[in-house]
Amino acid sequence: MKDIKHLRKEIIEKTTEYYQARFAQKEFIPGKTRVNYAGRVFNQQELTNAVEASLDFWLTEGRFCEEFAEKIADFLGIENVLLTNSGSSANLLAFSALTSEKLGDRRLKSGDEVISVAAGFPATVTPIIQYGLIPVFVDVEIPTYNIDIEMMRKAITSKTRCIFIAHTLGNPFNLDAVMELANNHNIWVIEDNCDAFGSEYKGKKTGTFGHISTISFYPAHHITTGEGGAICTNDSQLAQLVRAFRDWGRDCYCSGGENNTCGKRFSQQFGNLPFGFDHKYVYSEIGYNLKMTDIQAAIGAAQMDKLSEFCERRKENFKEWFRIFSKYSDNFILPKATENSDPAWFAFIVTLKEGVPFSRDEITQFLNNNLIETRNLFAGNITKQPGFLNKDWLIADHLNNTDYIMNNTFFLGTYPGLKKEMFEYTEGVLEKFFKSKK
Questions:
Q1: For tag attachment on the chain, is the N or C end more exposed, with fewer CB atoms within 10 Å?
Q2: Residue of 177, 127, 171, 128 whose CA lies nearest to 152
Q3: Whole-angstrom Cα distance, residue 248 to residue 271?
Q4: Which spans in 327-419 are helix H?
């Protein structure tokens, strides 16, 4: 009978062999192979890590979660990284932490105002509404697609308690201006870094400027665990609050399988509970169970080793799209990086200029009919989405650019799986489209 170590080694070797047989790179066939806007890019290491975690059969947080979180912390140069089951959950947890009574007068309360944008993804806005606060929507600028700083300044009132915005498609917003405004008015900043993991502003990684930041590991993002996300902060109190909300609302911070880390498990007073009530079952927040599994983290730990390379590939792919679309600059507003930034672009975004002889839907349908995927800028104008009608929100001044984006903007992918032949094929398809318009 084979010993366990030998069996494990054999399984891992067979997993590598399986990867090479099942996931070997396939030839791109123009007109038959889809040019995706996003996708998983991985090798045998992700697969073998996932199998290793399965063989451990430690199904909740374990050694791979610890490794993954440490790699993220090292990459960003940040103290606290808490893993969760999605980027949307990360946003929910980040916002939840700021509502804790433990923050005293600084806690966010129902009726407070939160600066955000309507030209973005719903998960940045939904926690604000769910907690009974008021999103104040500020317009964005074109061609950075980030918040209009002057309008944001004017939108601040005595009720403003937080700024919760994303780095649009990997392009950092003006962090100097946002953080200066936040510091002057003593308000929180949640940095939605889900589309910008690896982007930089003035040589510093995004996700390290705000009081708290979030990451998504959905397959479209810079690295993937399938479903997954993270919350990052240098504030130890906020980290403890995030952990509480993520782990059922419990006050105890012991990791799975640990007991009495604080040394006071049966010697404390909480709420109206009897003295010495088991700290493991004390709930100080109205929380959830939103943890990541060790199998997901095993995949993420392998992906982290590729993140820097992935970011460089995204930048190169962005440049290639820019070269192609520059030929049609009479028709498109081309994207622009925020001043002092180095985006690890999530996508290549363009907006139709006024008066062009075709609509956004015409060109995106033509591209999609030729198996080239496109996407609109997420919700367009979120105030017009059915789920957000008749909800409590305010518009700072106007959303003119947001409305224009809703009707005239689309993006293509920059993910590392794009090949030279895909760009060449898309370039030819675009030439056909513009010839048809002549």
A1: N
A2: 177
A3: 17
A4: 360-369, 400-408
The angle that helices 236-246 and 87-97 make with each other, rounded to 10 degrees, is: 120
Q: Does residue 6 have an active-site annotation?
A: no
Ordered alpha helix ranges (H), 124-229: 126-130, 149-155, 175-185
List beta partners, residue 411.
349, 375
Which segments within 110-268 are labelled E, that is strand?
113-117, 134-138, 160-166, 188-192, 200-201, 204-205, 212-216, 229-233
Site of tokens 């939904």: 126
The angle that helices 294-304 and 63-76 make with each other, rounded to 10 degrees, is 40
DSSP H or E run through 64: helix 63-76
Give the pLDDT confidence of 140-150 residue by residue, as tens digits. 999 999 999 99
Identify the band that residue 95 occupies on the pLDDT scale cut at 50, 70 and 90: very high
119 near 405, Cβ under 8 Å? yes
pLDDT averaged over the chain? 96
Q: Which residue has tokens 């405004």?
A: 181
Q: What is the dihedral of CA 145, 146, 151, 156, to 10 degrees?
A: 150
Distance CA 36, CA 317 (A): 13
Give the class (CATH, top level) of 25-249+284-438: alpha beta
Chain-centre distance of CA 403, in angstroms? 23
CA 402 – CA 331 distance, rounded (Å):
19
Which pTM was predicted?
0.96
Q: How buried is residue 266: exposed, middle or buried, by Cβ count under 10 Å (0-12/13-18/19+)?
A: exposed
| Residues constituting the chain | 438
Dist. CA 357–CA 411, nearest whole Å: 19
Considering the candidates 221, 222, 279, 398, report the single residue annotated as catalytic.
221
Q: What are the start and end residues of each CATH 3.40.640.10 domain in the chain?
A: 25-249+284-438
